[in-house]
Task: structure prediction
Amino acid sequence: MTSIEIFSKKHEGTIIAIVVLLAVLRVFVFAAAFPFFSNIDEESHYDMIVKYSKGYSPVAKNVLFEKESAVNIIVNDSPEYEVPPEYFPEAKIPDPAWTKLEKNGTEFVIDPVTMDKAMEFTNDKNPFAKSPFLYYFVAGKWFGLGKSLGISSTHLLYWTRFLNSFFYGVFVFIVWLTARLYFKQNMAICISVPLLAAFVPQDVFYSLNSDVLGVVLFSISFYMLSLLYLDSRGRFLSFITGIFIFLALLSKVVNLILLPLALVFMILSFWKNGLNLKELKRLVPFLAGFAIPFTIYAVILNSYSVIPFSANYKIEILGWTRKPFLLMFDHPVFSLSGMFLFLNNLTKGLFRGELYWAGEQLTSGSMDRFYLITSFLFIGLSLFALKTSFRNKEKQQVIGVSLALLVVLAFYAFLGLLSIMYDFKGCWYPSPEYPYFTSGRIIFGCIGQFLTLYMIGLCFIVAKIKSINISPILCACAISIGMLINEILLSLSVFTSAYNWFH
Result:
């Protein structure tokens, strides 16, 4: 153990508190810097938040945009995501619409031209009207709280978006707790994994999007399943774990991965403790915690002919069609080049998201190459580290690495399955020319496990190179600083936008 790791062990709680605070601050600053409305369907997510703030439910029949949403979209929408300044006269971005409106107290007075544009918007269907609703419900309550505090207009939009910084702080904290469960004796993992998670430039947290709560609830559910398995806790924890898995499904369809994952944990628990009456008694409250709210929810939705956790409505709006089973295998992902393209773009997207600015994606070619090379190298090396741990009978570390690998593979496979299941005719992404789901934000819930494998591989290579006497924690610090500097440099023009919170 190096001096840095000894210091980290002594001050672990303080270090993690600082890391979490920095994560919250980073998301807050970038969420404030990006104007509304981003290219990741932010208008639609915002409309759903407004709907749920007014008592909307998943069985409601009103799927059109709300008038309130439409007005705020027209008034606050920035063209900077889609087009460069050169697109406009004198290469100057037009002033925000709200600067031209009069105010009555804290509210804008909407002129007839703006209102006509907004009313056109209310004829559009919201593609997320039947999607898992928990994020919209929570954000809707936060939105309503802001209103009751007298926050309005553009400030209310940012008030709602700033909720993401709290979610991200919770997420980083849970990443640390999970790392500590499996690798308590390895301080490099316990510190480095949450540190990297705090600075991964995944930009979905800079806009209103249901993915953000799904990430948090998956992480909490995985942590509770781990706690239940490793510590053999009582029935109450088992019951609460079942409830959290149900809540995770209410936030994002991709969290269905938790169901087979829970089965894996059950098998591991029976293998560890034996298939006995005590273990079965501990299983009953877990099943009840999930099954009771799920059954109530399913019965209510079925009475309105709505299928729980179904994306059928969104698929219908987008115009996708389900492929016959045999045709699913006629897909480029089953070729070497297609598989490489899928893994390549999904891994890059997992790190840096998919926001555009001035019509171009906010990316750095050199940083993308760094993400890809180090990810494939370190995760590959983590398999050798797993072999070493197995040989040394480090059972808890073997389980931790194996589960991390399983989670990452499951998330990647989920998007791979979606890619081959549908014909994307008439859609721009995915499309017939690019029939791949490579939006890393969708699977960002696995980033804790991904970074665990990443750091296991990094620790392995550092340990093997005897001439390098350096702590992996320092390497993680250097990578984190590099990611932050790169993100700031890519976003310099964003911070100068007249449409953002700072202006």
In short: The two ends are 48 Å apart (CA to CA). DSSP finds 20 helices and six strands in the chain.
